[in-house]
Automatic annotation (TrEMBL):
GO terms for molecular function: O-methyltransferase activity; protein dimerization activity. Gene3D superfamilies: 1.10.287.1350, Vaccinia Virus protein VP39, Winged helix-like DNA-binding domain superfamily/Winged helix DNA-binding domain. This is Methyltransferase. Residues 13-89 form the O-methyltransferase dimerisation domain. The keyword Transmembrane helix does not apply. InterPro entries: COMT-like (IPR016461), COMT_C (IPR001077), COMT_dimerisation (IPR012967), SAM-dependent_MTases_sf (IPR029063), WH-like_DNA-bd_sf (IPR036388), WH_DNA-bd_sf (IPR036390). The keyword Transferase applies. CDD domains: AdoMet_MTases. Keywords: Methyltransferase, S-adenosyl-L-methionine, Transferase. The lineage of its organism: unclassified sequences, metagenomes, ecological metagenomes.
Length: 342
């Protein structure tokens, strides 16, 4: 029992200093250090020259990263480890872009105002940047591109789970709302060659989806439409699909998105929302933790419980019919939340 306290203290100590590790990994990812180490060890002088950085400072950062097994230091210099394999830009399941995205100020600055959020109930992102998250990405195209690439990586991790665990055989035309570059929808249509689809997202997002669509060789079975889902959504679908979209918004605006789907949905249509859910069990904390991130960076967004989803669906004219856990995504459990027209 005496050792238990020590272990718990050490555990908490690691959490207290977590921000350090985030920034250390961010710097390595931003500088693409792992890319330079693909063909073997390199010393800090070589890496500093390649990255145009201050060698003594870079060395100290890389040395610190060896303490958490991101890199390994040897007589030849720094080497890749099992962890840093995932920081190589073109490696399967690379997390480099996500490391950059989470380390940029667009993520960490609002978290510096968590106490402000708790005291006031106001949105820290708006307080720090004077605009909401999505306005920020529109006015900061480089960060916006990183965000889109990061979400694309998250989607890649979700896709196989969705394809394996959710059956779209009942659908005829699937409309994906806020589908980004279209990887999920294109993957579904590739698996189900008798289905059609419509990809819908902001014009500056979907303009890059045409190249990806061609790679999936789905012909003319998927239209690509640019627009704003608070105004309108494309008609003609019997299934309206939203993956990790609703959690970005407060109940009023989330309900508006769903109502827009309701207005154009065919009779016997279905709404399918893939989201993380807040659960009561302690073995699945991801939904609760991610909910606080939504509080910090989104305009009223949150992760919801089943009861909250039921009320949200009802406010938009849907009846929640089924909630199915379909597996664990990259950072949180994923659920298929289904509803029909009331």
């Amino acid at each position: 029992m005496k050792n238990t306290g020590k272990l718990e203290q050490s555990h908490l100590f690691q959490y207290i200093h977590g921000y350090r590790f985030t920034q250390l990994i961010y710097v390595a990812a931003e500088l693409k250090i792992a890319d330079f180490l693909k063909d073997g060890p390199k010393d800090s002088c070589y890496l500093a020259a390649k990255t145009n950085t201050h060698e003594p400072s870079l060395y100290r950062v890389l040395r610190a990263l060896t303490s958490i097994q991101v890199f390994k230091e040897s007589e030849q210099g720094f080497e890749l480890t099992d962890l840093s394999q995932f920081l190589i830009s073109d490696s399967p399941n690379s997390l480099r872009v996500l490391a950059v995205m989470r380390g940029e100020e667009v993520n960490w600055k609002p978290w510096g105002e968590l106490l402000y959020a708790v005291k006031t109930g106001n949105n820290p992102f708006q307080e720090v940047f004077g605009m909401d998250l999505f306005e920020y990405y529109e006015t900061h195209p480089s960060s916006g591109q990183t965000f889109n690439e990061g979400m694309n990586i998250t989607t890649q991790h979700d896709i196989q789970t969705i394809l394996d665990q959710y059956d779209f055989s009942y659908a005829k035309t699937i409309v994906e709302i806020g589908g980004g570059l279209g990887r999920l929808l294109f993957s579904i249509l590739a698996k189900y060659p008798n289905k059609n689809g419509i990809l819908y997202d902001l014009p500056h997002v979907v303009k890059d989806a045409y190249t990806l669509r061609a790679q999936f060789q789905i012909g003319n079975r998927c239209g690509i439409v640019g627009g704003e889902f608070f105004s309108t959504v494309p008609n003609g679908g019997d299934v309206y699909l939203l993956k990790r979209i609703i959690h970005d918004w407060d109940d009023k605006r989330a309900s508006k998105i769903l109502r827009n789907c309701h207005q154009v949905m065919k009779d016997q249509g279905k709404i399918v929302v893939f989201e993380t859910m807040v659960q009561d069990d302690y073995d699945n904390p991801e939904g609760k933790v991610n909910d606080t991130h939504m509080m910090m960076v989104t305009p009223g967004g949150k992760e919801r419980t089943r009861e909250e989803f039921s009320k949200l669906f009802q406010s938009a004219g849907f009846l929640l019919t089924q909630v199915t856990p379909i597996g664990k995504g990259l950072y949180a459990g994923l659920y298929a939340i289904e509803g029909i027209l009331q």
